Amino acid sequence: MRFWIGAAVWIALAAGVAVFAKNEYVFFATYTVLMFVVLATAWNILGGYAGYVNFGTPAFFGLGAYTGAVLYKAFALPLGLQIVAAFVMSGLLGLFAGILTLRLRGIFFAIATIALVVIMETLFINWRYAGGATGLQLLRPAPLWPFQSYITMLFMVMALMVVGAVAIARYIERSWIGRGLRALRDSEDAAECSGVPTLRLKLFACAVSGGLMGAAGAPMPMYLSFIEPASTFNLNYAVGALAGAMIGGTSHWIGPVLGAVLLSSVQQVVTVTISNEINVLVVGVLLVVFVVAAPDGIIGFFRKWLSSK
Amino acid sequence: MALLEINNVSKSFGGFAALTDVSIDIAQGERFGLIGPNGSGKTTLINCVSGTLQNESGSIVFDGADVTRKAAYQRTRGGIARSFQIPRPFFSMSVLENLMVPLGYVVHLNNKNAETEAMNILERMGLADKAGAQSSSLSQVELRKLELARAMAARPRLLISDEAMAGLSGSEVDEVLKILFDLNASGITIIMIEHIMQAVMRFSQRVVCLDAGRIICEAAPAEIVKNPEVQKAYLGA
Amino acid sequence: MLPLDLLFEAVLFGILLGCFYAAVSMGLSVSFGLLDVPHVAHPAVMVLGSYCTYLLTTVGLDPIVAGVLLMPPFFVLGMGAYRLYYEAFEKRGTEAGVRGIAFFFGVALIIEVGLIVAFGVDQRMVEASYIGSSLRFGDVRIPQRTLVVFAVAVAMTVVLTLYFSKTFTGRAIKAVAQDEPALRLMGANPVRIKQWAFGIATAVAALGGAMLIIIGPVEPNMDRLYIGRTFAVVVLAGLGSMTGTIAAGLVLGISESIVLIHPGLGASWAPAVSFALLLLVLGVRPQGLFGR
């Protein structure tokens, strides 16, 4: 119950800020942070709960973005429906890719997910209608009432998506599905011999994870008024999602939230104050440090601190 | 009709033939012992029965149904449970939660009933005081008991115990044997793989000896120890 | 179907390209193929080697000589890196193993950014007598530098294959890949052997980097183009096979080359070839051509 109260407070706050705040830069910055919260949360469902570390985020995110863009170009579809369509498309990609790759172990699976990203990027580079390699320009429609500008509306959409993604992740984590995922992460053979349908659960996790990433991608073309393959399918999205979840801690839904907020905020600050390249360095260093020294992430620190009191 | 039929099962890894043409019938309610030197293929055979590995040829028939192509989780839900020779607990979970997995996925109990039954099993295994402990903190001996407890939690009709008693003291061996006898008395068919000969002899009604992937002898316990082939396999030529 | 002379040129170019891919994948054949280290940073180390080669050429050294000179320091670097990896990951068991992937990914990023900061995002290239000129074989012109790389690739394969089959440490490395507990029983220390092997892999990567910058200009993010290619080659070869690496490299090189000249496809489809090949191998014959 506390969770839903917190979610309601969050939505109310976000709505208030969206409708009344004046400084537009705040929305640009926080949109990116919120987007990475959704991506990290989604990543964690497969990468954290099931233990299938992967670099596939850009494939699902990108497919979601292009689904939105193409549907908008063809039918002037409103954003809400774009998001639903993106969720479905990327979810199906997750299912399909999972059938092909989830029988592979560890590193092979991770490399196969990079393969997926490159193949998706190649497909869209070669699709003229979607803009090909040069990309597609899009004209934003007018924002819906009560939002004064499109960017504040996008901010609100992303704030709602955060609640949705976290709620789904939390439900999975606490349910029998979550227990099955943890079992298969700890020992896939023992889980099978304890009655856990490991392939089915992995496919489910892959589809949900992919779908959520696609949903997070759908507003992107509207955010930029532009979409092109190279930046959309960039491996940096893979890093952001993976690092956000692993730095925050993969065992609980709060981990990716904390990790993504921390990481994305630091990245924003560094990009503005130092340079864009150093921001990638920061991610790399943080990732290495946390993975080596703090495998349970920020959550792990909290737990140790709590148990020592 | 036999509860478990292993028919002409063969399994290779690359060029290495781990099992060659193994056939065994296990009757309902039987106490069956499987022995053989290290590397003879005992665990590989169990892996093929449980579905952890797929045999290339031959078939596994359980309770009249051919399960050869079935996934391991389906076989567990169908009534085959096994413990692992090197314990594979769910390290991120407590001892109690380890049992909740099969209780949820095989027996389909809700959390409350699963907890009750899990505690019962843990008491029988002497692990009740460790119920809340992280499974990663258990000693080797306790891990082996957890393996068996988790297999029991699946309410199997056939339980395969893969060297569950390795490293246990004399009295602990007796403890585990008693549990297995009780399980058998309640109707569960048991296949025991063990190196502790006196346990196998006391427990089994029938014993098969494997060597280099083939059956070299099948007999009552008293006979099998006298068999020269078996002696040669264990002591070397 | 393609006209025959075009196909012939594609295959020829593909063979040369393939040997190049084999050369740059050799290090990964050792680190991932034999040692099971999820070394996604291998291409990044290679690019680092390219830039170091570049630096050495600015003081007048020939790139191949530079590449060979870089091997000892990279060897030491590799040994140290493996020590860190082992302490942090492999020792803690397979559950921590997948985190190793994230670790190497982070390392690759750090190398990438380090190079951008040190050298900027512009491309760098090297010069040598064999770069820029071509040899004529009838109607076909073959750039000299591709022949140079071809020769180095063959030499590397021969040396490594001999090393792993004839020398004591080489065979110990092969043994540790196949049966670590047995090796332990014989009194050898598997960790030190693996460290040594990883050092070799890194040294080979340095030479591969020299090949890379000989073939063409490099830029800091280039490693991303080669993750797919190197892993495709190593997996297709069969983990742990040095000669398989050449064969697999040829398959990849020829496939890419044919896609490149195919009128319906072309350069925009080429990057997907290595990954499509990788997925195909993993799906159909995961142990590769000569797998262990």
Describe this structure in words.
The complex is a heterotrimer of chains A (309), B (237) and C (292). With 309 residues, chain A is an all-alpha fold. Chain A contains 15 helices and two strands. Chain A has helices at residues 2-20, 24-49, 57-75, 79-101, 106-125, 150-174, 176-186, 188-192, 198-217, 220-224, 229-232, 235-248, 254-273, 276-293, 297-307, and strands spanning 136-137, 226-227. Chain A is globular and about 55 Å long. In chain B, helix 3 packs across helix 4 and helix 4 crosses helix 5 (140-153). With 237 residues, chain B is of the alpha/beta class. Chain C has 292 residues and is mostly helical. Helices cover 74% and strands 3% of the residues of chain C. Chain C contains eleven helices and two strands. Chain C has helices spanning 4-34, 42-58, 63-88, 94-119, 144-166, 168-178, 180-185, 190-215, 223-237, 242-261, 270-284; strands at 134-137, 140-143. A two-stranded antiparallel sheet of chain C has the order 1-2. Classes of the chains: A mainly alpha (309), B alpha/beta (237), C mainly alpha (292). Chain A binds chain C through residues 51-53, 55, 100-101, 104, 106-108, 110-112, 114-116, 118-119, 121-122, 125-126, 133, 185-186, 235, 239, 242-243, 246, 277-278, 280-281, 283-285, 287-288, 291-292, 295, and chain C through 32, 38, 40, 84, 88, 95-99, 101-103, 105-110, 112-114, 116-117, 224, 227-228, 231, 235, 268-269, 271-272, 275-276, 278-279, 282-283, 286.
Primary descriptors:
heterotrimer, A: 309 residues, mainly alpha, ABC transporter involved in vitamin B12 uptake, BtuC, two-stranded antiparallel sheet, 15 helices, 2 strands, C: 292 residues, 11 helices
What would you say about this model in short?
With 309 residues, chain A is mainly α.
For the record, the CATH architecture of chain C stands as Orthogonal Bundle
Spatial ordering of strands, largest sheet of chain A: 1-2
Overall pLDDT of chain A: 90
What is the typical, i.e. mean, pLDDT of chain C? 84
The main pleated sheet of chain A reads as: 2 strands, antiparallel
Question: Any idea how many domains of chain A?
Answer: 1
N-to-C span of chain A: 27 Å
Helix segment tally of chain C: 11
Protein chain pair with the most extensive contact, residues per chain: A-C, 42 and 40 residues
Total number of helical segments of chain A?
15
- In one word, what is the shape of chain A? globular
CATH architecture of chain A: Orthogonal Bundle
